[in-house]
């Protein structure tokens, strides 16, 4: 995924919120965009997931697998919405708590108009390389799972329709250290075994330095000018 | 005793489609769908209109058409209330109340406040030699077919989607699935079944009355709570809940009649039953999904 010359301003504001930002993500790393609260991470996240309608206030392009998009909203570009899936900070809003782990996966794979046909079998390929979810957990109602397991479930549900890019908003903010570690291990395995671009937006610098490999992106706000710097980890 | 059993069966079977519909909207989609009361009357009215219009035609065709008309009548009510909820963004309770008003006027316009059907041969007695309960065999057939269809529906993606909507209405937007269509189809199906029940009730009692739908929502809630209390199913979808609930409700009603209970107090008693179970459940059930234990 490549963001090229992104400029964005909120309606009624003369000064651009983002001015000519370019950033590139590959599918070999987990990409962290780290920054303090209020620096603009959520706005960038909203643009990438297509919940802000940029209209004329949006300039620049986003490229995924050599396809260039000039807009990210679902109304304007269904293909972009299919290729980019997000996991919200409040991941429980993405789960049907009365249904089992497997049922949730099947439910997330339903088409736009659910059919008069049985649910498709759950795709549990993503679990093959990790021990975080046992066989028993797969048939357990999701409200009985731990926070980390529910976060992993939400991630797997987002992956059911095979997106190219996975956006995660503060995936470990609601979790304790042990559960945060489970989730990050799962994402590391996912990154190694599947060709998916993973982008995590978070404020926790310690988490970033613990789990980022080679580099991460730091977002800063200097007198209203927002920049994204690539920070190397040695 | 046998006659009491027949009466319980007949009453239960004519209300079974209503209860299955209410199970879909109240228990699965989890909305206060008062429009089933309008659907009940509109279904009865349209079914009876077709019955009167088809007078003299073969009974098999008449039966098929009146059932179709009552289903369509109910579905129209559901379509109106669900469109108001989804497109005008009204709370569904308000949509149901508005829909009730609109269809009360429409029903008044196309039918009188009271219409007797006693002069028209009942299509529910098709091919049945005269017995004490001549409509029971057809009611059994209709009940079995409706149960099978609803059972099949609830095993499909669409059926699961109804239950997911009730569990987490925000679910679908994360996965590119249409919340609007699921809600509208669910409420239409639920109300269509209520419409069918309305016709079956009207035909069995040989009259349509404009206020015959009043109190049906409370009846449904009581029966669903009874069903859920008796079944204690842990699965999110269990069609046995409305079936057991309906039969236990009318068994209870007939037992009370047998011991000399005055039925004019029955509605008040229903409300008390619902209240006691609700208070008990909220007070003593600590499980996170405790609201699901009620069945509504």
What is the tally of helical segments of chain A?
7
The biggest sheet of chain B, with number of strands, parallel, antiparallel or mixed sense and barrel status, is: 2 strands, antiparallel
Describe the strand arrangement of the main beta sheet of chain B, using strand numbers: 1-2
Measured between the Cα atoms of the first and last residue of chain B, the distance is 33 Å
Gap from first CA to last CA of chain A: 25 Å
Number of extended strands of chain A: 10
Structure description:
The complex is a heterodimer of chains A (234) and B (296). Chain A is an alpha/beta fold. In chain A, 27% of the residues lie in helices and 26% in strands. In chain A, the strands form 2 sheets. Chain A has a 6-stranded mixed β-sheet with strand order 6-7-8-3-9-10, sandwiched between helices. Chain B has 296 residues and is mostly helical. Chain B has one domain. Chain B has helices at residues 2-28, 35-53, 59-86, 92-110, 136-154, 157-167, 179-205, 216-231, 240-258, 266-284, and strands at residues 114-116, 207-209.
Features:
heterodimer, A: 234 residues, alpha/beta, Rossmann fold, four-stranded antiparallel β-sheet, 7 helices, 27% helix, globular, B: 296 residues, mainly alpha, 10 helices, 2 strands
Task: Annotate the secondary structure layout.
The complex is a heterodimer of chains A (about 230) and B (about 300).
Chain A: E1 2-8, E2 18-24, E3 30-34, H1 41-49, E4 58-64, E5 67-69, H2 78-83, E6 84-87, H3 101-108, H4 135-138, H5 147-158, E7 165-169, H6 177-193, E8 197-202, H7 205-211, E9 215-222, E10 225-232
Parallel strand pairs in A: 3-8, 3-9, 6-7, 7-8
Antiparallel strand pairs in A: 1-2, 1-4, 4-5, 9-10
Chain B: H1 2-28, H2 35-53, H3 59-86, H4 92-110, E1 114-116, H5 136-154, H6 157-167, H7 179-205, E2 207-209, H8 216-231, H9 240-258, H10 266-284
Antiparallel strand pairs in B: 1-2
């Amino acid at each position: 995924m490549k963001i090229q010359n992104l400029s964005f301003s909120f309606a009624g504001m003369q000064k651009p919120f983002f001015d000519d930002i370019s950033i590139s993500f590959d599918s070999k790393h987990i990409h962290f965009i780290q920054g303090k609260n209020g620096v603009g991470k959520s706005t960038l996240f909203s643009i990438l997931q297509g919940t802000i309608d940029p209209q004329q206030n949006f300039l620049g392009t986003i490229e995924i697998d050599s396809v260039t998009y000039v807009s990210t909203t679902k109304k304007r570009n269904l293909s972009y919405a299919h290729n980019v899936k997000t996991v919200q900070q409040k991941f429980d809003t993405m789960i049907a708590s009365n249904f089992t782990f497997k049922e949730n996966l099947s439910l997330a794979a339903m088409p736009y108009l659910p059919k008069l046909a049985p649910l498709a079998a759950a795709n549990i390929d993503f679990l093959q390389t990790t021990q975080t979810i046992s066989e028993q957990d797969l048939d357990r109602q999701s409200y009985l799972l731990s926070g980390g397991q529910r976060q992993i479930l939400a991630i797997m549900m987002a992956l059911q329709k095979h997106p190219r890019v996975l956006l995660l908003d503060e995936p470990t903010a609601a979790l304790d250290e042990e559960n945060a570690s489970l989730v990050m291990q799962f994402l590391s395995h996912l990154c190694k075994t599947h060709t998916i671009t993973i982008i995590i937006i978070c404020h926790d610098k310690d988490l970033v330095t613990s789990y980022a490999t080679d580099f991460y992106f730091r977002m800063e706000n200097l007198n209203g000018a927002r920049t994204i710097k690539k920070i190397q980890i040695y | 005793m046998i006659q009491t059993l027949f009466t319980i069966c007949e009453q239960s079977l004519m209300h079974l489609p209503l209860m299955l519909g209410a199970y879909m909207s109240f228990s699965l989609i989890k909305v206060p769908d008062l429009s089933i009361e309008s659907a009940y009357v509109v279904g009865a009215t349209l079914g009876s209109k077709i019955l009167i219009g088809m007078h003299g035609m073969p009974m098999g065709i008449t039966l098929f058409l009146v059932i179709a008309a009552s289903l369509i009548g109910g579905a129209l009510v559901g379509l109106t209330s669900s469109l108001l909820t989804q497109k005008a963004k009204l709370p569904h309770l308000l949509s149901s109340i508005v829909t009730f008003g609109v269809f009360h006027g429409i029903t008044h316009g196309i039918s009188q406040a009271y219409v007797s059907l006693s002069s028209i041969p009942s299509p529910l007695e098709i091919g049945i030699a005269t017995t004490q309960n001549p409509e029971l065999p057809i009611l059994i057939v209709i009940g079995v077919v409706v149960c099978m269809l609803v059972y099949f529906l609830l095993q499909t993606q669409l059926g699961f989607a109804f239950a997911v909507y009730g569990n987490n209405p925000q679910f679908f937007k994360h996965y590119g699935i249409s919340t609007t269509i699921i809600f509208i189809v669910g409420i239409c199906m639920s109300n269509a079944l209520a419409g069918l029940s309305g016709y079956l009730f009207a035909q069995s009692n040989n009259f349509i009355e404009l206020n015959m739908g009043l109190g049906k929502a409370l009846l449904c809630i009581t029966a669903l709570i009874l069903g859920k209390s008796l079944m204690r199913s842990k699965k999110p979808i269990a069609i046995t809940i409305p079936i057991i609930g309906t039969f236990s409700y009318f068994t209870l009603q007939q037992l009370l009649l047998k011991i000399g209970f005055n039925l004019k107090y029955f509605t008040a008693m229903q409300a008390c039953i619902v209240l006691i179970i609700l208070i008990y459940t909220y007070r003593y059930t600590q499980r996170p999904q405790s609201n699901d234990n009620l069945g509504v």
